[in-house]
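Question (not urgent): is this output format expected?
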Amino acid sequence: MEQSIAVQMQHISKRFGAVQANHQVTLEIKRGEILSLLGENGSGKTTLMNMLAGIYYPDSGEIYVNGQKASIRSPKDALALGIGMIHQHYKLVDVFTAAENIVLGLKESLNKRQIIEKIQSICEKYGFQIDPNQKVYNMSVSEKQTLEIVKVLYRGADILILDEPTAVLTPQEAERLFTVIRNMRDDRKAVVIITHKLQEVLSVSDRVAILRKGEYVGTVKTKEATELSLTEMMVGKKVALDITRTQVKQKQLRLQVENLSCYNQEGIKALDNVSFDIYSGEILGVAGISGCGQKELLETVAGLTPPAEGSTITYYPPREQPPKSLIGLSPKKIRQNGIALSFVPEDRLGMGLVGSMGMSDNMMLKNYGQGRPFFTSSKAPKALAEKIRDELEVVTPGISTPVRRLSGGNVQKVLVGREIAAEPTVLMTAYAVRGLDIHTSYTIYHLLDEQKKKGVAVLYVGEDLDVLLALCDRIMVLCAGQVTGIVDAKSTTKEELGLLMTGQRNDTQELSDTCEQDKGNHLQQQTQQDEQKGEVE
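Got this back:
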């Protein structure tokens, strides 16, 4: 069947201050196909689609919808043209039902029963599973995403844009979403997926359009592409996509956590009797849906969050020195006790770096307040800042430029580089490559493996299951603050991890229901933080 062109974007440009987000981009979107819009962080993918969805208005260029020139100045204009966008952060009212959210703001002439029948008809047609009477606050992340898609379909959209749709889904949930997307394609919908996950691109799309640094590189048929060819188009040079996993040798117990529980700022139990060991020369991965205790786990070990009574965290120093308890120790006390612990937190600027300081000043923070400071003059921190800038390709006007002015990815490079430079015996990272381009992400993976070779015990919280399986030696899975399993990364699968992430284990039948409710609690907060600190994408 011949595919008609739904949208033509011609010579689109958009600038935010000094940042050229898009430059002379030309793109075609066809009906009856799934188009993946691929590019590194900061390549302009989301900005381009936000102009099609009416969030932004292009500085120059033209947009044609169904062959007619269109002026799209608001999301209302976009919906009138049949264009609907599902964003990473969901725009739903928690205390409303699914049906109430779908019709919110519409001048609907149907009664409640007719509205629900129309919703159910859409769900049956494409394979959605949703209860129109369920309150949003009781929904999982995947159910909220389903609701957003049904909402735009209900409003007449036949050109759908999904921004990073699988960012917080388990493999099973992602596959169900792909089935629905294929059904929409078969119904002659035009579907655009904004993503940077190559495996998903190859799995679900028909064509792939690539952006690089705000400019259009080209479009290829998915069946003719490979991960390597797409990566080279994204980066503009050859990139090795191999993650090295060095075999663990002569491992020694470095950190032992037993019955660790803690409460978050709202007084809700965030960790529930978590126990695990981590050894020198090992990378222990931590998997789980966002908000299942990963943040609290690292912060408790780092001395930032007080553990509940009965918890134990024991550090075993090298060279057979006596073990030390970390319970009750602040980060400063941990350093004063000679414990070389480095922590890359999830909140880059709020906790990891001081936004008003430059790179060189942020280098000094690690040892601030010690009796014998690591840096005796400004030369050493300046040299370290320059080394990190050069090795990790940090894009900055200068090492004295306040880091808050850098993109999210570059802020992360500064933070990871500083923590590794401190020569830790225990290194904890929360989403160390979030916001980084592919080339730099693989540089970080290499750096973590180098730390492993040096005998460092690495605790790696990640969200990409393929990376966790390739990089880590063991993977601990959290769900609703509980450990649902610790598995050998070399022998487990993504599907097994996905089941553990939703509480599917033999001895905790009740945990699955708890996880489903817990999965969506932190999504809104996380995506808002990413938007504030992230790159123009």
